[in-house]
Amino acid sequence: MHPTLRTVLVGAAMVALTTACTASDTDAAGQAPAASVAPTATAQDTVAPAADAPPAQAADAFAEPAPGIAVRPVAGTTVHRDFKRSYLAMDAWTLYPAEGSTGRPLAALVLDGSNEITSAEMRIGRSDSAADVKACTTLPPDAAGRADTAKVDGVRTTHFSSSDAAMSHFLSADSYRVVQGGACYAIDLIIAGTRPEVYDPPRTPPFTAEQAKAALASMLAAVHWTH
């Protein structure tokens, strides 16, 4: 091939290549990046508000293997597995155990802040002995007045009140007794402590009696039966 013709053809090819690259760059610059294009919302794409979702179920603070008794978490309380915090209330499974009773403590929900001046707690105990089951709903001698009935999670229980005082200590309680699943259950709502005026200087209780009663009511409402 003649050198002049070769030079002309090479120059034409370079011009064509430059034109093609310029056109490609122009097309790319003229288009918005795909990621910046907002998708069009449709009715099918609409997400339901979080408030419409069912609330998550919290684990129980205490639960027996089903069937049995359980307690949902109660804010401002601490769960204990013993009953050893009151001078007047023995650490038996029930507030007023009969002689020879053989039940066991299950759980106690103690109101946060409870101390030796004033404490509030719900105790739950159980006995499977035939004697305890037979006498489960019989009022103890310490009961004040007559018994009535009250439902705990829909189950009718025998309810009674009691109180005690000695050596500047005091105790008041609302108690619930029921036979469920062949066992006797004792639920005791207890306010106990020491009279603050016996201290020098007098002590300040961590909460009032009214606050303690309201807290105990919320604990009782958290009790439920498992099946």
Structural account:
With 227 residues, the chain is of the alpha+beta class. It is built from three helices and ten strands, in the order αβββββαββββαβ. The N terminus is likely disordered. β1 and β2 form a beta hairpin. The strands form two sheets. A seven-stranded antiparallel sheet has the order 3-4-5-9-8-7-6. It has a three-stranded antiparallel sheet with strand order 1-2-10.
Number of strands: 10
Unreliable parts: 1-57
The total of helices stands at 3
Order of helical and strand elements: HEEEEEHEEEEHE
Q: Judging from the principal axes of the Cα atoms, what is the shape?
A: globular
Helix content: 10-25%
Largest sheet: 7 strands, antiparallel
Decide which structural class fits the backbone: alpha+beta
Instruction: Summarize model confidence as the mean pLDDT.
Output: 80
Fraction of residues in β-strands? 25-35%
Order the strands across the largest sheet as they lie in space: 3-4-5-9-8-7-6
How far is the N terminus from the C terminus? 100 Å
Assembly type of the shown chains? single chain
Radius of gyration: 37 Å
Provide the descriptors you would attach to this structure in a database record.
single chain, 227 residues, 34% strand
Q: Any chance you could write out the topology, listing elements then pairs?
A:
Blueprint: H1 3-29, E1 62-63, E2 68-71, E3 77-80, E4 104-111, E5 118-127, H2 130-134, E6 143-152, E7 155-166, E8 169-180, E9 183-194, H3 209-221, E10 223-226
Antiparallel strand pairs: 1-2, 2-10, 3-4, 4-5, 5-9, 6-7, 7-8, 8-9
In short:
With 227 residues, the protein is α+β, with helices and mostly antiparallel strands. Helices cover 20% and strands 34% of the residues.
